[in-house]
């Protein structure tokens, strides 16, 4: 039956590409039910063919590790490849897929994966920016658009969402996640999975999600990428694991195991993480792929002496697919013969690869995602650019505003800074299929918004970095940073001249995209190069100073906060960055984003996060009280707390009212708070609910986010916001590592950020 289908499909394919372009004609009678179909297929497979399915190779241009896969086409035709990544477009995908379904004995189609991290062709803000919208519908929509574009471009699998909790802004990959909070991170993870996968993985416009990097990758010590993670089990379960679990419970089809070592065991070799936790405890049934060469990296980690040992460890730990190392394909056949790994383990891993392909509908139609017409009609369509613009402006966080924003619609602006007239950096990192040349610079966005009403005087002001080695490294990996021949003092002087003849200064400063993302940790998280000198020189002109920050991490900005008149955080905002920034600077959109990380005053405070423990000696402000948990040379306070962000209007919070002070049985606590827009503009506010469990069998965080609502209030309008706290919301891992709710006193806080809150309390019986 299946054979017949393949003959029909093959004939249709060979009669011309049109068969692959039009969806329907290829549809053979639907394949058998999943279990039956896969059992029959597995029964026909040789051990080599099964191992071939476990091989995930890169063919294309993006290299994120030391090696690139070799002879991919040849291997595909020999049935030695189960999936490829870094290849897209219907033409390129069809070519490889044809090799798989026409040249191999069992005609098993390939998976086509790619790092679609914040948009595919139409680029959205980096994930950290997306999280700052606190708008789950918008986040889901960004993933839906990305999934539609990716699938129109031949892909069926995206290496996203990245849900690693990160508390250390030195870590470059903080840009790729949703910040420091497990509750928010979990909601974002679910929204992304829904957006990519929709309700039907078989539909030609949905793709399989891959939750990464399992697990705890964001806990890299000292914020240095690939560094080991030292973490107690309770922190792991309460803070770092929930987003992976949430994504899996939302139905994510696949998971990627991470590079890092956890307490002495690299995840690639960790049966505890990959099998006991992920499979047995969480009941994850999907596909588990390794990260890029992470399996052969078990050798430098020091837990395997050679590739064969690494392959055995990795398979036994639970990795189904080997990304790029090719140690499975090279060593598993002999390992089975030697009895060092069981054939059953290979069959189980292969089954999961085949199940993913089945679920994606690839056995019914291997060309399901190969359709030039759909690609032409879908990729970067105007509607998607508009959505990207709207979501970008929602991601911006206003940190300070002395009434200088929105800008006046007359007079003149000095537009300065190394990122003011820049397109490359706008789309950020992990935007491989994005075309930065189609991105909108801040300069172009402002010119379009103001037309001839405002004179814009431009000067670059300084370089993004003056570290020659850093520059060389950035440019070696697509930095596109032009070398400036004029000296920096001259550039600053020119910017000062421009500022003097303008009414207001808009300084677009920050990081280059390559300073964040993978392998892009920074020890100093302030403005790189001479940018601070530039700002100081601009400040000295006495002109109002607006900072537009382009960034992929929390940054230390104490001088900037003290001296600038306004600071707007805009991340790497994507294809429509410049237009979205102009929307906010002109007041066409009132900013409402909120930080999803705590921003430190100084890198020496790192890791600094809001949901910390109290310690036995909390500092209470008594300066001469020596023996308290504090620094001698700096306060404990962050520069900006988690959840913080201003608006062009203001909000006031009424008292927090509870419908009961004792929680018993299955009841819930209703928490009410009236929020009023006390300013003159309509605006959105993210109302946040935090809880503190005052006494437990183990120490509990001083605050934990348990709910949030983003509401739109007209100028002068008041609204009562209602949250329900369920008993299960109060559960934690107790002294015996059991998930329990312990009776006692709880504090409830409601506010517009994690610091400025109103409080009430109740007790659990
Ligand atoms: C990264 C992953 C990515 C993979 C494939 C790795 O270096 O850690 O996030 O999905 O490369 O490009």
Concise summary:
It is built from 24 helices and 27 strands.
Provide the CATH topology of one domain.
Rossmann fold
Number of helices: 24
- Please give the order of strands in the largest beta sheet: 9-6-5-4-3-2-1-10
Give the end-to-end Cα distance, rounded to a whole number of Å: 63 Å
Q: Which small compounds were modeled alongside the protein?
A: beta-D-glucopyranose
**What's the average pLDDT?**
95
Supply Rg: 27 Å
Can you say what the CATH homologous superfamily of one domain is?
Glycoside hydrolase family 3 C-terminal domain
Pick out the low-confidence regions.
1-27
The CATH architecture of one domain can be named as: 3-Layer(aba) Sandwich
- Strand count: 27
User: What proportion of the residues form beta strands (DSSP E)?
Assistant: 15-25%
Major beta sheet summary: 8 strands, parallel
Q: Which secondary-structure class do the elements indicate?
A: alpha/beta
Helix content: 25-40%
CATH class descriptor name of one domain = Alpha Beta
Shape: globular
């Amino acid at each position: 039956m299946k054979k017949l289908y393949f003959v029909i499909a093959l004939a249709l394919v060979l009669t011309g590409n049109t068969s692959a372009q039009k969806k329907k004609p290829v549809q053979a009678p639907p394949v058998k039910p999943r279990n039956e179909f896969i059992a029959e297929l597995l029964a026909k497979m040789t051990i080599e063919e099964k191992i071939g399915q476990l091989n995930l190779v890169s063919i294309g241009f993006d290299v994120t590790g030391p090696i690139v896969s070799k002879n991919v086409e040849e291997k595909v035709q020999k049935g030695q490849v189960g999936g490829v990544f870094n290849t897209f477009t219907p033409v390129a995908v069809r070519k490889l897929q044809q090799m798989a379904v026409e040249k191999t004995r069992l005609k098993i189609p390939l998976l086509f994966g790619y790092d679609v991290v914040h948009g595919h062709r139409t680029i959205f803000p980096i994930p950290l920016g997306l999280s700052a919208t606190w708008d789950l519908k918008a986040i889901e929509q960004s993933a839906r658009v990305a999934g539609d574009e990716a699938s129109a471009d031949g892909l069926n699998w995206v290496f996203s969402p990245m849900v690693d909790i990160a508390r250390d802004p030195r870590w470059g990959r903080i840009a790729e996640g949703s910040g420091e909070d497990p509750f928010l991170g979990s909601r974002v993870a679910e929204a992304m999975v829904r957006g990519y996968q929709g309700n039907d993985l078989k539909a030609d416009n949905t793709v399989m999600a891959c939750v990464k990097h399992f697990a705890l990758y964001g806990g890299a010590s000292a914020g240095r990428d690939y560094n080991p993670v030292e973490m107690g089990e309770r922190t792991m379960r309460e803070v770092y694991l929930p987003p992976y679990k949430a994504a899996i419970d939302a139905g994510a089809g696949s998971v990627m195991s991470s590079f890092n070592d956890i307490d002495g065991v690299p995840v690639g070799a960790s049966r505890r993480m990959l099998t006991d936790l992920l499979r047995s405890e969480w009941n994850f049934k999907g596909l588990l792929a390794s990260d890029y060469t992470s399996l052969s990296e078990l050798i430098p980690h020091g837990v395997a002496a050679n590739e064969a040992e690494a392959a055995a460890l990795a398979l036994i730990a639970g990795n189904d697919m080997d990304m790029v190392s090719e140690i499975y394909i090279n060593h598993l056949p002999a390992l089975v013969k030697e009895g060092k790994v069981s054939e059953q383990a290979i069959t189980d891993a292969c089954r999961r690869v085949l199940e993913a392909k089945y679920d994606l509908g690839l056995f019914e139609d291997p060309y399901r995602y190969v359709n030039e017409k759909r690609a032409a009609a879908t990729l970067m369509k105007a509607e998607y650019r508009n959505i990207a613009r709207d979501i970008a402006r929602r991601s911006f966080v206003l940190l300070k505003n002395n009434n200088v924003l929105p800008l006046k619609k007359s007079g003149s602006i000095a537009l300065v800074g190394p990122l003011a007239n820049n397109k490359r950096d706008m789309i950020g990192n992990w935007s491989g299929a994005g075309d930065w040349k189609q991105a909108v610079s801040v300069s172009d966005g402002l010119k379009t918004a103001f037309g001839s009403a405002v004179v814009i005087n431009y000067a670059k002001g300084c370089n993004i970095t003056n570290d020659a080695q850093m520059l060389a490294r950035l440019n070696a990996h697509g930095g596109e940073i032009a070398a400036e021949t004029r000296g920096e003092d001259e550039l600053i002087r020119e910017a000062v001249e421009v500022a003097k003849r303008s009414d207001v200064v808009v300084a677009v400063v920050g990081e280059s995209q390559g300073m964040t993302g993978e392998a892009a940790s920074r020890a100093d998280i302030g403005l790189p190069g001479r940018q601070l000198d530039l700002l100081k020189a601009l400040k000295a002109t006495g002109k109002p100073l607006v900072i537009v920050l382009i960034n992929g991490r929390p940054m230390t900005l104490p001088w900037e906060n003290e001296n600038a008149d306004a600071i707007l955080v805009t991340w790497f905002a994507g294809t429509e960055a410049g237009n979205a920034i102009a929307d906010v600077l002109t007041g066409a959109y009132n900013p409402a984003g909120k930080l999803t990380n705590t921003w430190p005053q100084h890198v020496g405070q790192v890791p600094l996060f809001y949901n910390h423990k109290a310690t036995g000696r909390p500092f209470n402000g008594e300066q001469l009280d020596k023996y308290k948990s504090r620094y001698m040379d700096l306060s404990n306070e962050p520069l900006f707390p988690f959840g913080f962000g201003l608006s062009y209007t203001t909000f006031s919070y009424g008292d927090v009212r509870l419908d009961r002070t004792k929680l018993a049985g299955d009841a819930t606590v209703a928490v009410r708070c009236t929020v009023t827009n006390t300013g003159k503009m309509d605006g959105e506010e993210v109302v946040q609910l935090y809880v503190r469990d005052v006494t437990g069998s183990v120490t509990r965080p001083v605050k934990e986010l348990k709910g949030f609502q983003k509401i739109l209030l007209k100028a002068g309008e008041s609204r009562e916001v209602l949250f329900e706290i369920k008993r299960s919301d109060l559960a934690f891992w107790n002294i015996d590592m059991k998930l329990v709710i312990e009776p006692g006193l709880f504090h409830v806080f409601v506010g517009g950020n994690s610091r400025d809150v109103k409080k009430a309390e109740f007790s659990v019986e």
